[in-house]
Amino acid sequence: xxxxxxxxxxxxxxxxxxxxxxxxxxxxxxxxxxxxxxxxxxxxxxxxxxxxxxxxxxxxxxxxxxxxxxxxxxxxxxxxxxxxxxxxxxxxxxxxxxxxxxxxxxxxxxxxxxxxxxxxxxxxxxxxxxxxxxxxxxxxxxxxxxxxxxxxxxxxxxxxxxxxxxxxxxxxxxxxxxxxxxxxxxxxxxxxxxxxxxxxxxxxxxxxxxxxxxxxxxxxxxxxxxxxxxxxxxxxxxxxxxxxxxxxxxxxxxxxxxxxxxxxxxxxxxxxxxxxxxxxxxxxxxxxxxxxxxxxxxxxxxxxxxxxxxxxxxxxxxxxxxxxxxxxxxxxxxxxxxxxxxxxxxxxxxxxxxxxxxxxxxxxxxxxxxxxxxxx
Length: 376
Hints:
This protein has 376 residues and is an alpha/beta fold. It folds into 2 domains: 6-268, TIM Barrel (Alpha-Beta Barrel); 275-370, no CATH class. 42% of the residues lie in helices and 19% in strands. The strands form 4 sheets. The chain has an 8-stranded parallel sheet. Helix 8 links the parallel strand 11 and strand 12 (212-215). Helix 8 (195-206) crosses helix 9, helix 11 (270-276) packs antiparallel against helix 14 (327-354) and helix 14 (327-354) runs antiparallel to helix 15. The longest helix has 28 residues, at 327-354.
């Protein structure tokens, strides 16, 4: 732990990086995967379990928490760490993505965005200053700038307009954030699928000398190759001594290939959402427990896993729980998925530190290709 926010590189292997973020509430080993705790909860999990799996940090969502239970209420109750019983680092997103994607009625101006809640239709205003204020009320450790995330595909002029607006909002967020010892505000690179705009955004944000930088507006439906091309253009334009966070990504394969291009931090709902819908991630690839072929399969998901959910329960039982709509099915598969994701991150960190990341990434990919029908 550290009284200030700091990042140090421990090792590099090609563009892949092994690092460590230190801050008052804890140390984050990178590359890191942050489970998504949208409304102050990682769905279907106790946060004690999340910690035991190796999570150094979780993500909270500004949009959802401001609507319910309300940022001011969370502040009165001691902040999000106390409210959710998670004393370790929390990153909050700005709420911008959810405003753009969930609010059917919204109006965007230079000042900010006016929108109606997807819950009850109530009107709200979100400006860069208000986003930072809400994140401060939540008492998160890493706060994100408010940005405009354009859905792809989009016209170049529209992508450029949103990127430039996001840069102006980044400056306002930095001013609103001020000097908060031990905490950090990250800027967000935008620019859609246009490499030159991504580089312009990265260079402009770098001049603000923020404590970290995120790459936003990717993994929103574009092909993986486009996302990887944007990372190859963007990462070299970001300061090497600052952490890099790819927002909303992703699959295990996305993570492997993004680490290879210099990314340090990830978040995604995929392991938790998939678990609630009967899909497991394992070292032998994905397993859809809804499939009838699992009904008589006595094997566990992975007999070598450290996670009881993956090691001790048969596929037949998990299939039964999923098909019956039992809550335990969601709980066990979410547990197994988060365990796999954190095991993958530990594997990646060790490989980078040993200077064999490319070799290990190939081995992992080959293991996935064997499929779940092979003997575990």
